[in-house]
């Protein structure tokens, strides 16, 4: 099987380029921070940190008088961070509820968005404190916003079948969507069947190359978060959908030099955004009251796999979770079923 690293290499390059652009808007010492965390974080993580740090320093310079003697963020030195107290960070979290970003756009954050941005601030303070460049790690004293459990949305068994049927038939589509469907239905069926039949992440899906599939073992090579590669196995039902798509794909003379498994109408590798849109399109017809995303298809697979196997560790391994608690937390009915299964295990009186 061929490697699909070219997609992830290009994604890494773009992330690195964007990080460097954002660094131009931050104090000079932040360059040392991003170099320092490079070996322990992915490019996507660092890019999110960069966005968060831009917001944080924008707030410090424009929403407080902490650095009243500095005319711009570029005059800041790492020692100036000692002026920041935990109360300033708490006020920053309050500010994140509703604010105007650097480009004048209105932004809001739920507790989860605030928690992520706080994690970014904590990472920065921890780094400079550990390198003896700060007097104290004040960010560590700020409590994480209380996170309320989200209702877990997934497709039921009958909805899964209806979802795939809709992708196949195009029933309910109108106008341009109906016209485009005639050109994409085989691809779309293969794509959603693969997502629902393996639980892979959207990045793992769009990163697949044709050479990553081995039909002799019903296996495919994917690149996980963090860059690790592994083999996922799929059912004969998924195999049929993939073979149908490959037969159509291989008949396109414009794809001779294109390695990507799933391609757009422009004969290029399909983007994560395009996958999100096509899932939303079919879900809007199938289950209009549910907000179904590619990740919800992953949740659907994880829940169904647990119900078939009863083994939370198998589910965690197949989904690529390093911590089984992540699996319990994010996949509907798993914890509930586990509690139900032990309900009659403790006997109060002998019969």
Structural account:
The protein has helices at residues 5-23, 29-36, 43-62, 86-95, 111-130, 157-169, 175-198, 202-206, 236-249, 272-286, 294-309, 312-319, 324-330, 334-341, and strands at residues 98-100, 106-108, 213-214, 219-223, 229-233. Helix 6 (157-169) packs across helix 7 and helix 7 (175-198) runs parallel beside helix 11. It contains 14 helices and 5 strands. The longest helix is centred in the middle third of the chain and has 24 residues, at 175-198. It has 2 domains: 5-141, Orthogonal Bundle (DNA polymerase, domain 1); 157-341, Orthogonal Bundle (hpI Integrase, Chain A), CATH 1.10.443.10. The model has no long low-confidence stretch (mean pLDDT 91). A 3-stranded antiparallel β-sheet has the order 3-4-5. With 351 residues, it is mainly alpha-helical.
Annotation keywords:
351 residues, mainly alpha, DNA polymerase, domain 1, hpI Integrase, Chain A, 3-stranded antiparallel beta sheet, 14 helices, 5 strands, globular
Summary of the model, kept short:
The protein has 14 helices and five strands. It has helices at residues 5-23, 29-36, 43-62, 86-95, 111-130, 157-169, 175-198, 202-206, 236-249, 272-286, 294-309, 312-319, 324-330, 334-341; strands at residues 98-100, 106-108, 213-214, 219-223, 229-233.
Strand order of the largest sheet: 3-4-5
CATH architecture of the largest domain: Orthogonal Bundle
CATH topology of the largest domain: hpI Integrase, Chain A
Ends apart, CA distance between termini = 59 Å
Q: Which class do the helix and strand fractions yield? A: mainly alpha
Note the total helix count: 14
What oligomeric state do these chains adopt? single chain
Q: On the 0-100 scale, what is the average pLDDT?
A: 91
Kindly report the name of the CATH homologous superfamily of the largest domain. Intergrase catalytic core
CATH class of the largest domain: Mainly Alpha
* Percentage of β-strand residues: 5-15%
Q: Tell me the domain tally.
A: 2
N-to-C order of helices and strands: HHHHEEHHHHEEEHHHHHH
Overall shape: it is globular
Biggest sheet features = 3 strands, antiparallel
Cα Rg: 24 Å
**How many distinct beta strands?**
5
Q: Show unreliable segments.
A: none
Proportion of residues in helical segments: 40-55%
């Amino acid at each position: 099987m061929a490697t699909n690293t070219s997609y992830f290499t290009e994604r890494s390059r773009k992330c690195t380029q964007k990080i460097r652009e954002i660094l131009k808007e931050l104090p000079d010492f932040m360059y040392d921070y991003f170099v320092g965390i490079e070996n322990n974080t992915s490019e996507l993580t660092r890019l999110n940190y960069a966005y968060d740090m831009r917001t944080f320093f924008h707030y410090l310079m424009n929403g407080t008088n902490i650095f009243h003697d500095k005319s711009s963020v570029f005059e800041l030195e790492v020692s100036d961070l000692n002026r920041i107290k935990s109360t300033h960070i708490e006020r920053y979290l309050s500010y994140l509820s509703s604010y105007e970003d650097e480009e004048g756009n209105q932004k809001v954050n739920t507790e989860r968005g605030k928690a992520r941005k706080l994690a970014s601030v904590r990472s920065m303070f921890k780094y400079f404190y550990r390198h003896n460049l700060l007097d104290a790690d004040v960010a560590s004293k700020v409590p994480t916003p209380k996170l309320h459990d989200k209702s877990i949305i997934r497709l039921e068994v009958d909805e899964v079948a209806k979802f795939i049927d809709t992708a196949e038939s195009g029933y309910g589509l109108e106008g341009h969507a109906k016209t485009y469907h005639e050109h994409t239905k085989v691809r779309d069926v293969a794509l959603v069947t693969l997502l629902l039949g393996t639980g892979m992440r959207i990045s793992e899906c769009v990163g697949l190359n044709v050479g990553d599939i081995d039909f002799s073992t019903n296996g495919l090579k994917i690149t996980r978060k963090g860059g690790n590669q592994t083999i996922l196995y799929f059912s004969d039902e998924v195999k049929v959908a993939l073979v149908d798509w490959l037969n159509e794909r291989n008949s396109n003379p414009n794809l001779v030099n294109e390695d990507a498994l799933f391609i757009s109408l422009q004969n290029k590798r399909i983007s994560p955004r395009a996958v999100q849109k096509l899932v939303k399109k079919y879900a809007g017809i199938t289950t209009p009251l549910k907000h179904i995303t590619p990740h919800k298809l992953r949740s659907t697979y994880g829940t169904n796999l647990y119900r078939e196997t009863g083994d939370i560790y198998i589910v965690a391994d197949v989904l690529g979770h390093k911590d089984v608690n992540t699996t319990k937390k994010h996949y509907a009915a798993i914890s509930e079923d586990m509690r139900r299964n032990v309900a009659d295990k403790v006997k109060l009186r002998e019969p």
